[in-house]
TrEMBL record, chain A:
Belongs to the isocitrate and isopropylmalate dehydrogenases family. The keyword Manganese applies. SUPFAM superfamilies: Isocitrate/Isopropylmalate dehydrogenase-like (SSF53659). Performs an essential role in the oxidative function of the citric acid cycle. Its main location: mitochondrion. Keywords: Magnesium, Manganese, Metal-binding, Mitochondrion, NAD, Oxidoreductase, Transit peptide, Tricarboxylic acid cycle. Coiled coil: none annotated. One of its GO terms (cellular component) is mitochondrion. This is Isopropylmalate dehydrogenase-like domain-containing protein. GO terms for biological process: isocitrate metabolic process; tricarboxylic acid cycle. The lineage of its organism: Eukaryota, Viridiplantae, Streptophyta, Embryophyta, Tracheophyta. It is found in: Mitochondrion.
TrEMBL record, chain B:
The keyword Transit peptide applies. This is Isopropylmalate dehydrogenase-like domain-containing protein. Residues 47-370 form the Isopropylmalate dehydrogenase-like domain. It comes from Miscanthus lutarioriparius. Its main location: mitochondrion. It is found in: Mitochondrion. GO terms for cellular component: mitochondrion. Performs an essential role in the oxidative function of the citric acid cycle.
Length: 377, 375
């Protein structure tokens, strides 16, 4: 009896050992011992195909980083790569067909030329596959100091209509009309998606962003749809905010926001502001989802493909696409791989040794990628 | 510039707040941002067949029901009364499970001897749930004699010693047939290695007694070795079941995933559950190609004794953790995380514990404590 109780006594009397070498991040120690009880179905380990579009600018650099990390983890995904560039007239049919087949796509940014007659291929992809919800998750990463704390905002943005309808015409020379189209159908489904997201992820509040004091009918219709859906979720708080006040509140008191549902243009701007206050567009993951397909990419500013200097020096930040690919792994129902990848990335950021220029460091993409691979558990 | 940098400086210079120094789990899990992009329609409620069962079954399934309601989880239960002394599982129950694909059940008491075959086993064979899984791990705050236990026992569920083929050769002489097939051994080995692969486990150990039952357990081992070749990244070794039981109580940290035939799995799972905290806390379930039944991990046929039922002191933790596995199986990871975190916090706190964990609480008190801790 005495022999068995000694180790027990020793454990009770010893001070609790600090499990992580970084006591300031409670995340590090806990996640490494996180036992996720999970009973997979037989056959769940079969590899899944993912369409990969490297894109322009920094795209090939960061998608290359994702590929390396996936191989290091032996993740059950294989990539079907397609070359698409922003100056093509349309997205090639084989790419669309591949995404329809695989149902999931990972892409770098596609540069959209300003002006001219070429419509954005990013938008084209979303409309073609009816990916009507764009999601950006902006949150403070431990170890990355920012001017704003307690940021944990998810911006859900309508992706197919609004100001991005692409319907413009020149009435008379020197006068151009651009049509913003808001439909009840699209507003309703984005509101439904936002509230369903809040419900599934234990979020407490949904805020609708609008400018209905000026665009009374268009944004008014959007608000009506949100209010109708809000009635079905009595447990979730719902409020509305005008977009200019919203932008100001985001930089003043970001902790008041939780989930935000917005039409197309406001969503783009709000997502960029939220990403900026939480650490930059180089770290916030996101994607586009529709009924059948999902495309994962850089959360905000997906059309931003960096400048030539970054591409030359290979100093693009791979964190954002790595976190988005972790979302993708969770979407494909590989929660354990997703957790490993996210933990490794967060540890690298918390450590602070390997950071690219936008986070205040001097590392190259490859150095950050190697650091993440080294930290995979 | 100075005005913006002051809060930043203050944050960098202030000491890092430690939410609760002894449980790194509590603070981190409450701030765990799981980036997760659901498909539209993922929030639609799913039906789950519920079988309260015998003995402590109705008590603990009632606890699960209360917690699910408190969380507003998108599941609704179709309840069916099944008792261990029925001749067979009613057809409507099987049909309901086939429709819902997922079932949660309390234990069904199997009478010793007699002609009634176990309804637990009947359910598994009828739905071809060929893998039984028990996850045995130390819970923070629950002191045990063994540390660093994190074992998953994957047990073949349909054949072996449980074939139910017995006959009396002559009066006073009974033969019981143990049947091992390549088909079943192969699929359970495949499931075990796939589990290890998907959950980042490093080692799979096959448990056998092939020195005595050379052909039967030898066939099992052959199948395991074949599958092991396809997973070069995962260590594979074999251990004889008697040595295994001794090693479990001496050095449990050497085991990771264990794949076993039917009977050894039952015993090994119970030993592993016992060293890690008891059968009252270990979650588990049975899974097949199409269906899954979640229940108390080990000793599912153990329905407690009358005294526990009378005083309502059954431990709901095992079934709560199993229902968290079920939520994850139904692809509601956020709800699963919340439930697991709440249960682990209640155990870590140590205030509300039933008798098998050394406390004096009733089932209802533990359930209320879990509901109070839901984030």
């Amino acid at each position: 009896m005495a022999r068995r109780s000694t180790p027990l006594l020793r454990r009770l009397l010893a001070p609790s050992p600090s499990p992580s070498p970084y006591p300031s991040t409670p995340l590090a120690g806990a996640v490494s011992r996180r036992t996720v009880t999970y009973m997979p179905r037989p056959g769940d380990g079969a590899p899944r195909g993912v369409t990969l579009i490297p894109g322009d600018g920094i795209g090939p650099l960061v998608t290359g980083a994702v590929r390396q990390v996936m191989e290091a983890m032996h993740a059950p995904v294989y990539f079907e790569t397609y070359e698409v560039h922003g100056d093509m007239p349309t997205v090639p049919a084989e790419v669309i067909e591949s995404i329809r087949r695989n149902k999931v796509c990972l892409k770098g940014g596609l540069a959209t030329p300003v002006g001219g007659g070429v419509s954005s291929l990013n938008v084209q992809l979303r409309k073609e596959l009816d990916l009507y919800a764009a999601l950006v998750n902006c949150f403070n990463l431990p170890g990355l100091p920012t001017r704003h704390d307690n940021v944990d905002i998810v911006v859900i943005r309508e992706n197919t209509e609004g100001e991005y309808s692409g319907l413009e015409h020149e009435v008379v020379p020197g006068v151009v009309e651009s049509l913003k189209v808001i439909t009840k159908f699209c507003s309703e489904r984005i509101a439904k998606y936002a509230f369903e997201y809040a419900y599934l992820n234990n979020r407490k509040k949904v805020t609708a962003v609008h400018k209905a004091n000026i665009m009374k009918l268009a944004d008014g219709l959007f608000l009506e749809s949100c209010r109708e859906v809000a009635k079905k979720y009595p447990g979730i708080q719902y409020n509305e905010i005008i977009v200019d006040n919203c932008c100001m509140q985001l930089v003043a008191k970001p902790e008041q926001f939780d989930v935000m549902v917005t039409p197309n243009l406001y969503g783009n701007l709000v997502a960029n502001v939220a990403a900026g206050i939480a650490g930059g567009t180089g770290v916030m993951p996101g994607g586009n989802v529709g009924q059948d397909h999902a495309i994962f990419e850089q959360g905000a500013s997906a059309g931003n493909v960096g400048n030539e200097k970054i591409v030359e020096k290979k100093r693009a930040n791979p964190v954002v696409l790595l976190l988005s690919s972790a979302m993708m792994l969770r979407h494909l129902q590989f929660p354990s791989f997703a957790d490993r990848l996210e933990t490794a990335v967060k540890r690298v950021i918390a450590e602070g040794k390997y950071r690219t220029k936008d986070l205040g460091g001097t590392s190259t993409t490859q150095e950050v990628t190697d650091a993440v691979i080294a930290k995979l558990g």
